[in-house]
Amino acid sequence: MSRVVTFGEIMLRLATPGHARFQQAMPGGLHASFAGAEASIAASLSYLGADAAFVTALPANSIADACVADLRSLGVETKHILRTAGGRLGVYFLEHGANQRGGNVIYDREGSSVAITPAAEYDWGAIFVGCDWFVISGITPAISRNAAEVARVAMREAQGLGIKIVCDMNYRTKLWNWEPPLSARELATRTMRELLPMVSVFVGGVSDATAMLGIESSGDLQALARQIVAEFPNLSHAAFTLRDGSTAAAQCFGGALYEAVTDTLHTAPRLTITQVIDRLGAGDAFTAGLVFSFLQNSDPQTAIAFATAAGCLAHSIEGDYNYSTPSEIEALMQGDGGGRVSR
């Protein structure tokens, strides 16, 4: 199977227990795990059985050691993770939403190792040996000016080697603040428009496309996909997550995949989620499912159905990583979504 490399930041995730608010949980105990878009994609791919590597920069301390060990326990290749004397492990705090109250994330990641480590420190030639797919998100260039430059260098190196690049847009308005007085949206649009010409597969929600590319949607998803591909003709596919919900706990999750060569939009039925355990990482699970399907040479309809089912199941699992097997995802694709006990 082809090798997949992902690059980005991994953080310590500190979540309040249950649905407690920060002021209820602190002082007190928070649940600690590790999380980050590209790390989550690599972990999900590895759990599905793919050959996945994650690249980042981490400080040389025992907490970062635990982070690397956690990735290795899932089979993720970590040998190209840099350990640095400077910088730190970023942190984010999570308060789960409930009913009509949405969730809340507070970042504490400024000055992280990956934010300050220059592109020249990474051995891109060794990193990309045997690699066929490179996955990065719109979060990485949002972290800092340096991280945006590292993303640009990594993508240029991958493109030069003929590696297909997947970009999961992931617009984070709280992060795009490294070039005042530009607004988050202005900086994101300028930066991502510089990077998208190198990308083969666009992944995101409709709001990601409008916020980060400055493309307004009329509500016609195929027309939006056509416009994105017209502006960035290196794209072979544009994939969209489709989400709506009445509360934080009740959601509908779907997906669509536009294939440029055939000008065809393939859609998967929206799946109803009546009890969200954890919605963070669902988009990463969707992207991992899509890339895994590409590795399997699945037809586009199967690929988007698999990605959507993977993203749906991720809502049932605490933490950012999707501990769902191919057989569980395929069962949901085939309509087995009743939650029966396997005996």
From TrEMBL:
Protein name from the UniProt record: 2-dehydro-3-deoxygluconokinase
EC code: 2.7.1.45
Superkingdom, taxonomy of origin: Bacteria
Cross-referenced SUPFAM superfamilies: Ribokinase-like
EC class (word): transferase
InterPro entries: Carb_kinase_PfkB-like, PfkB_dom, Ribokinase-like
GO-annotated molecular function: 2-dehydro-3-deoxygluconokinase activity
Family: Belongs to the carbohydrate kinase PfkB family.
Keyword Magnesium tagged: no
Organism: Prosthecobacter vanneervenii
Any Pfam family matching the protein: PfkB
Keywords from the named record: Kinase, Transferase
Sequence ranges assigned to domain Carbohydrate kinase PfkB in this UniProt record: 1-322
